[in-house]
Design a protein that fits this description.
The mean pLDDT is 92. Strands 1, 2, 3, 4, 5 and 6 form a 6-stranded parallel beta sheet that branches. The chain has helices at 18-28, 60-71, 88-97, 124-137, 152-155, 165-182; strands at 5-10, 35-38, 74-79, 110-116, 140-141, 147-149. Strand 1, helix 1 (18-28) and strand 2 (35-38) form a beta-alpha-beta unit. By secondary structure, it is α/β, with parallel strands linked by helices.
Length: 189
Amino acid sequence: MSQPRILALVGSLRAASINRKLAEAAVQTAPEGVEVTIYEGLGDIPFYNEDIDVPGSVPAAAQALRDAVAAADGLLLLTPEYNGTTSAVLKNAIDWASRPYGAGALKDRPVAVLSGSISPNAAKWAHGDTVKSVGIAGGRVVEEAHLHFAGFGERFADSHPREDAQALTELAGAVAALVEAARGTLVSA
């Protein structure tokens, strides 16, 4: 593999989302020769509906996501916790990327899940639901690359995660583990 490509999908559409900021920090921690890109446009994708998932007429936004996932060597999913579970936008992206059943762009793709929230729980419920969904959808879950961030309100109240040495170290480790999995050298769960 020449230059590993990691695609980050952020489960919050809010411009100032801390999960978005974590994705931005992850981009800057990528090892030399690794490209990490934040996917734009998850909010444009219609809810998954098999009636509109028809070869030749898949909605353009959904097809663009599928193409981006297929072109990536690994996925970095960042999930907030909404009412105790993952966000609809991230679940919808997983649904579109998993189709057609058994042959979707997500199949066998290494995936790391990062979760975070203002609560001390660190969005672990959302994290668990996202891991479950990815695994059932056919992605290869890379447990060594998982991270949980708690207490956003205090920890990142006045700063960006890229200014937090511990966050950068943790993100760099997660990205490195995902890249290793994408290169096929890490055994994933």
